[in-house]
Amino acid sequence: MKSINMKLTKKNKIVVSLTIGAVAVFLAVVLVYSQFKPAKSTQEETIRFVVPKGQAVSVIGQRLAEAGLIKNALIFRIAVRLNNLEQKIQAGSFDLSASSSVIEIAQQLTMGTQDVWITILEGWRMEEIAESLDSQDLDAFDKEEFIALAQESEGMLFPDTYLIPREMSTENIHSMLINTFERKIVQGLAEEISQSDRDFEDVLIMASLVEREARNYEQMRKVAGILWNRIDLGMALQVDATLQYAAGYNNLQKTWWAPPTADQKQLNSLFNTYLHPGLPPKPIANPSYDAIKATLLPLKSSDFYYIHADDGNIYTAATLEQHNANINKYLR
């Protein structure tokens, strides 16, 4: 009898253990399942959520949890993995609600963003910026209005990548570029500007030339130093980019920056730095941070000449004789 009771006791223990295990598994499943449900099922208002370019799914999940849009960042990663959405999540901004489930939010991040990414390239003139913006999916942008607004702000339309609402007005886009210039250049280079013995308006004009004449920061410093030397000596700058600006759009080559011809060196324009010593009346393009900084901090030298060689390098010279020797060596 005792043996039978012992067997029953062992059997009961097994049954109890299995039951507890099953309950634990059931509770765990319920808990995990609950994490997929909306964070706040009764919330109707939406939150604007921005996904930067290249942000990892794990970081997106953590930010969604911190914003109160989901309950658990790990569950978001699981939902994305289970639905094969890793490569489908878009950069941009989205109007999300905590009343949506985790899977619904993950899927929404793969759909049309409310914003548009625009890129303004270094060295573009205002017409090129206007053309680029006009080709974007911007509901309220007007090309001619932008060009009219930019007439007095060439050089301050700061080159960068921006995330903007599709419905952003032309005036607000123009203001955004100017405000970015104010923040990144006027404030960001405040110390360099205050310590420079050059007028900042002149620096900005010179930087626009330097941007078009050099490929990287070190080249920019070289070119800036040489062009400032020419200014100080009263020599003509003889910068081809100013001829390109004066000539305008080349219909044959379909570009604003066609290589200048010999005849164009006689163009009757204040932007023709072959005929008119000194700086042009205003910037010929919108320079980058590097170009402006290089113009504020030019490389000091006794050089007055430079050439662009086919190997991508710039070769400088202090005298015309040395300059001609560089031409014969690197360009012929």
Count the DSSP helices: 13
Biggest sheet architecture: 2 strands, antiparallel
User: Termini, distance in Å?
Assistant: 113 Å
**What kind of assembly state do the chains in view correspond to?**
single chain
Instruction: Give the strand order of the largest sheet, numbering strands 1, 2, ... along the chain.
Output: 1-2
**Average of per-residue pLDDT values:** 89
Helix content: 40-55%
- Given the C-alpha coordinates, what overall shape results? elongated
Question: How does the helix and strand content classify structurally?
Answer: mainly alpha
Strand content: 5-15%
Output the radius of gyration. Answer: 31 Å
What are the segments in which pLDDT stays under 50 over at least 5 consecutive residues?
22-33
Task: Give the count of structural domains.
Answer: 3
Order of helices and strands: HEHHEHEHHEHHHHHHEEH
Q: Which helices and strands appear, and what pairs or packs with what?
A:
Layout: H1 2-36, E1 47-51, H2 57-66, H3 73-82, E2 92-96, H4 102-108, E3 115-119, H5 126-134, H6 143-150, E4 161-165, H7 170-187, H8 190-195, H9 200-213, H10 217-233, H11 240-247, H12 289-296, E5 305-308, E6 314-317, H13 320-330
Antiparallel strand pairs: 1-2, 3-4, 5-6
Helix pairs in contact: 2-3, 3-4, 5-6, 9-10, 9-12, 10-12
